[in-house]
From TrEMBL:
It is an enzyme of class 5 (isomerase). The keyword DNA repair applies. NCBIfam families: PRK10917.1-3 (NF008165), PRK10917.2-2 (NF008168), recG (TIGR00643). This is ATP-dependent DNA helicase RecG. It comes from the Bacteria. Belongs to the helicase family. RecG subfamily. It comes from Ruthenibacterium lactatiformans. Pfam families: DEAD, Helicase_C, RecG_dom3_C, RecG_wedge.
Length: 673
């Protein structure tokens, strides 16, 4: 049922709910509370802690009507208290709250207690009668957006329960019994309106299991290639011409990973391998070795990158590496158009190019390969699993390599990606010195620019990274104003370029080329340069509003420098340094090891953290947590394998609910941000 027709909703509210991803009554029931306010243990007024949200029990003594104050705001007050102390309740722009209070009656108020010791005050507290708190003491707190309060959402959910005739049970009875799970209808009731903590726990256990099972089933269904034979069995290739043509010696780790890939290419089953290596470890070269090997057996390869900038760069690098060995490279992105595109498509279909490098444009229907055998995705966390399987569908079970700088603990990787094999580049090319990293506040910005100027004077180049394009609501540095107001004046005699996501592809390419060629000294950019960009002469990166990023993202950004000779520097600027932020940034100043950083990120859970969906390409989970719920994940994997083993496409009527669950979970898996 469409959410618009739910009692108490209507068009305007429906639009707000849509923004939360709620379109139907089912969506609403699946919109779980983020937390609960527990009204069962209220504080007496004098005992309430200051400045933290808590529940206070007090009787209302009197009310004074509303008064208009500055800025057209309305203010109203009530006096309340208990035998320990008095409490002033102040309401801004909320006349109804005051109206609802009855003098002489006792209530529970939720909010922060402020004011002074002798005149305690709560501003706009949430209120509950003692009776309703006794009936349901745990009140749900929903993830909110503007204009949609938790109380309103709770009301909608109640209406949804009243409207939803029967809640279907998607799990087979055998599983419910085996894991002693509660039923779906009960779980939904308990997650939204629990009577106790035990209710919450039981509901969570059930819903987490269900979600992880859907995840594992979805992965198995998408893969659906367990015992498949590859259409691209290859002869063992001799890599020595490839190694010999390189301008440098490969690292031991690169050789090892290339050998592992070669061994897979010779097998009858398709390769499904993750190449994991820290930023700068040289993953591109390993992919190139695979491309070379595939070409020796007469197969084409494709490499898919998440951004046009990166695709263009890869095409460039790989062409330089492979063209002398007779491998022809074609670039295919959104900005390759018209005659050039036609020519490229024709050459690909005719087998006249051995390697296609591109963005997700390579997935489009018009791209037909003559003989695709080896498919690579770079920065795999930027792609959904579905996109990987679309790539695989371009040929008859081609060999797949996914590359990532995100270190996933091996066991978790296996759970997340099933039968994926893993190669690790645990060695950096020689001569790399760790990037010297500093965390400073904006007060030191001018000094820091002095340092940047000295590097530029010595012939090096710099990146300056800012978070957003236009002025936001808060004080984030907008990249365009930063460019004109800060960077240009401070770098007066230098050539400063501007790069952000809203530039046209051709403009981006032009800026990037200029920077690469040394025609620009400085690149002021948003995080579009986050992944993969490789300009060895750049040796300093300045990151404004560093508190906005997860550590892994900062580490990725930092990886843009330290790719060439000499010292490299990373400066993290933040004026919002809470203790937690300081600790995180300081950690980054002291380590260059991506694995350590990911571990720390896991432990501290900063913004855009490691297990955010951007980092692993899996669908966003609503309730389960891959790390915290790893036991349930194991169980779900076991059951998913058994279910798919018995019914490979989940077509039997008894599995219809499960199939739908998996499909729903993966339905959003198309976004390429
Ligand atoms: P990443 O693993 O982050 O994708 P890249 O493949 O972009 O790393 O490689 C980073 C840089 O290191 C590139 O400039 C590349 O040419 C260089 N490089 C790769 N392998 C070696 C090597 N064995 N010796 C020296 N430089 C290397
Ligand atoms: Mg790379």
């Amino acid at each position: 049922m469409d959410i618009r027709y739910l009692k108490g909703v209507g068009e305007k509210r429906a639009a707000q709910l849509t923004r939360l991803g709620i379109r139907t009554v089912d969506d609403l029931l699946g919109f779980y509370p983020r937390d609960y306010v527990d009204y069962s243990h209220p504080y007496p007024v004098a005992g309430a802690p200051y400045d933290v949200k808590c529940v206070v029990r007090a009787t209302v003594y009197g009310k004074n009507g509303g008064a208009r104050i500055r800025g057209g705001r309305q203010m109203a007050k009530a006096t309340a208290g208990d035998d320990t102390a008095g409490l002033i309740l102040t309401y801004f722009n909320n006349p109804y709250a005051l109206q609802k209070l009855e003098v002489g009656r006792e209530y529970l108020f939720f909010g922060k207690v402020g004011g002074t010791f002798t005149a305690r005050e709560m501003v706009n507290p949430v209120m509950l009668t003692v009776e309703s708190a006794a009936a349901s003491p745990l009140v749900p707190v929903y993830p909110q957006t503007e204009g949609v309060s938790s109380a309103y959402l709770a009301k909608c959910v109640r209406a949804a329960f009243a409207a939803a005739p029967d809640i279907e049970e998607p799990l087979p009875a055998a599983l419910i019994e085996k894991y002693r799970l509660c039923g779906k209808a009960e779980a939904l009731q308990k997650i939204h309106f629990p009577q106790s903590r035990q209710d919450v726990q039981a509901a969570r256990r059930r819903l987490i299991f269900e979600e992880l099972l859907a995840l594992q089933l979805g992965l198995l269904l998408l893969r659906g290639r367990e015992a498949a034979h590859t259409g691209a069995p290859m002869r063992p290739a001799d890599l020595s011409p490839f190694w010999n043509a390189l301008p440098f010696a490969p690292t031991g780790a690169q050789r090892r990973a290339a050998q592992e890939i070669l061994a897979d290419l010779g097998k009858k089953t398709p390769m499904n391998r993750l190449l994991q290596g820290d930023v700068g470890s040289g993953k591109t070269l390993v992919a190139a070795a695979g491309v070379y090997a595939a070409a020796q057996s007469g197969y084409q390869s494709v490499l898919m990158a998440p951004t046009e900038i990166l695709a263009a760069q890869h095409a460039d690098t790989l062409d330089r590496l492979l063209a002398p060995l007779g491998i022809r490279v074609a670039l295919l992105t959104g900005s390759v158009k018209g005659a050039a595109k036609k020519a490229a498509l024709r050459a690909i279909a005719a087998g006249e190019v051995e390697l296609v490098v591109g963005t997700h444009a390579v997935l489009s229907a018009g791209v037909e390969f003559a003989r695709l055998g080896f498919a690579v995705t770079d920065e795999q966390h930027r792609f959904g699993v579905r996109q990987r399987s679309l790539l695989a569908a371009k040929a008859d079970h081609p060999h797949l390599l996914v590359m990532s700088a995100t270190p996933i603990p091996r066991t978790l990787g296996l759970l997340m990606f099933g039968d994926l094999d893993i190669s690790v580049l645990d060695e950096l090319p020689p001569g790399r010195t760790p990037v010297k990293t500093y965390a400073i506040t904006g007060k030191k910005r001018a000094d820091m620019y002095g340092f940047v100027r000295r590097q530029l004077a010595a012939g090096r180049q710099a990146y300056i990274v800012c978070p957003v394009i236009d002025e936001g609501e808060n004080d984030m540095q907008a990249v365009t104003t930063y460019y004109t107001d800060v960077a240009q004046p401070l770098l007066e005699h230098y050539r400063v370029g501007l790069m952000h996501g809203r530039l046209k592809a051709a403009e981006k390419a032009a800026v990037m080329d200029a920077f690469k060629a040394g025609a620009l000294d400085v690149l002021v950019s948003t995080t579009v340069i986050e992944v993969g960009v490789d300009v060895p002469n750049a040796n300093i990166i300045v990151i404004e509003n560093a508190e906005r990023y997860g550590l892994s993202a900062l580490h990725q950004l930092r990886g843009r420098v330290g790719r060439g000779k000499g010292e490299a520097y990373c400066v993290l600027i933040s004026d919002h340094a809470t203790d937690a932020v300081k600790k995180r940034l300081s950690f980054l100043c002291h380590t260059n090891d991506g694995f350590e950083i990911a571990k720390f990120d896991l432990e501290t859970r900063g913004p855009g953290d490691f297990f955010g969906s951007r980092q692993h390409g899996l669908p966003t989970l609503r309730i389960a947590d891959l790390m915290a719920d790893s036991r349930a994940l194991y169980a779900a994997q076991k059951e998913a394998l058994a279910l798919v083993g018995a019914d490979p496409a989940l077509r039997s009527p008894g599995n219809a609910g499960l199939r739908r669950l998996a499909e729903e979970l993966f339905s959003g898996d198309t976004a390429l941000n």
